[in-house]
């Protein structure tokens, strides 16, 4: 007898990492419901359903999760990939409005989505949650301070939820990518490049040179790690903050 398909909710499913993860989960036999504040031009074949959702709208998060649970019967997997980079300010020049904007989407958004789905999984006594944080959550950086702080919040939310949901057979993990070839890094490279026509390429090369593997990740590589963590056979892995970063935090050695 074949096992019933898992039901997965993927936020940020119109973006690079979210779409690649949705596609990979689908290929592994999972029924995937995508959510994003931006609807895709046409629904990709790997999405069984798509719900437009702004993760900062707490009521909409509650209503969407409730509707999916009612319609599909269970939510076995949550992948929370929705997020923004924000503008570039250093700490001393960051307006509090920018800090609040990034925290609202990346940190409070993660809190709301993980809480709502966590309640469903607690009642089911089964599930896997993976949130996309960043290596920036674990390091001091000179720029994108609100982003880094928001991703540190995502990590701590995951650790707390792993503690709370452990007794309910629910795993909660964070993946921490280094640079990934998606629209988000394109935005960063364009900004870093300034008016130099080759500036974005130079910014990419400079960042890649700081990574032992010498290159960025492809979204499919992050998707592969996320999919591994959502496999019920790996349920005993919980509370991890797993770098998917080509060794980026090792330093380059001497
Ligand atoms: N690209 C990288 O280098 C990198 C590195 C580390 C972590 N990450 C994280 O990975 C995740 C996915 O990023 P990506 O690289 O695929 O970027 P992306 O910009 O391609 O995708 C992000 C997606 O999130 C959606 N989104 C943004 N705000 C939202 C909101 N309020 N409600 C619902 N959806 C919203 C966007 O519409 C977009 O589809 C993000 O959380 C990002 O911080 C990315």
From TrEMBL:
Protein EC: 1.1.1.-
UniProt cross-references to SMART domains, sorted A to Z: PKS_KR (SM00822)
Record domain Ketoreductase: where: 6-178
Keyword Oxidoreductase: yes
First and last residue of the signal peptide: none
CDD domains from the UniProt entry: SDR_c
Originating organism: Streptomyces milbemycinicus
Entries under InterPro entries matching the protein: KR_dom (IPR057326), NAD(P)-bd_dom_sf (IPR036291), Sc_DH/Rdtase_CS (IPR020904), SDR_fam (IPR002347)
UniProt-recorded name of the protein: SDR family NAD(P)-dependent oxidoreductase
Family: Belongs to the short-chain dehydrogenases/reductases (SDR) family.
GO molecular function, one term: oxidoreductase activity
Keyword Oxidoreductase: yes
Record key words, sorted: Oxidoreductase
UniProt enzyme class: oxidoreductase
């Amino acid at each position: 007898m074949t096992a019933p398909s898992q039901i997965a909710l993927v936020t940020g499913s119109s973006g690079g990492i979210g779409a690649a993860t949705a596609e990979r989960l689908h290929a592994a036999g999972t029924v995937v419901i995508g959510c994003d504040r931006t609807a895709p031009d046409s629904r990709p074949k790997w999405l069984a359903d798509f719900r437009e959702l702004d993760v900062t709208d707490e009521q909409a998060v509650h209503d969407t999760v409730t509707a999916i649970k009612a319609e599909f019967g269970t939510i076995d997997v949550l992948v929370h990939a929705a997020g923004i980079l924000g503008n570039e300010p250093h700490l001393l020049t960051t307006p509090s409005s920018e800090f609040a904007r990034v925290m609202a989407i990346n940190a409070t958004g993660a809190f709301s989505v993980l809480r709502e789905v966590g309640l469903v999984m607690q009642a089911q006594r089964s599930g896997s949650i993976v949130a996309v944080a960043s290596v920036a959550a674990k390091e001091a950086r000179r720029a994108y301070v609100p982003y880094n702080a928001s991703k540190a919040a995502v990590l701590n939310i995951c650790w707390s939820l792993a503690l709370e949901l452990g007794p309910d057979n629910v795993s909660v993990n964070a993946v921490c990518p280094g640079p990934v070839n998606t629209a988000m890094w394109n935005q960063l490279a364009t900004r870093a490049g300034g008016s130099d026509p080759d500036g974005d390429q130079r910014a990419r090369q400079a960042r890649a040179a700081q990574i032992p593997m010498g290159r960025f990740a492809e979204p499919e590589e992050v998707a592969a790690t996320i999919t591994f963590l959502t496999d019920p056979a790996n349920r005993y892995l919980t509370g991890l903050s797993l770098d998917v970063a080509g060794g980026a935090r090792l330093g380059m050695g001497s």
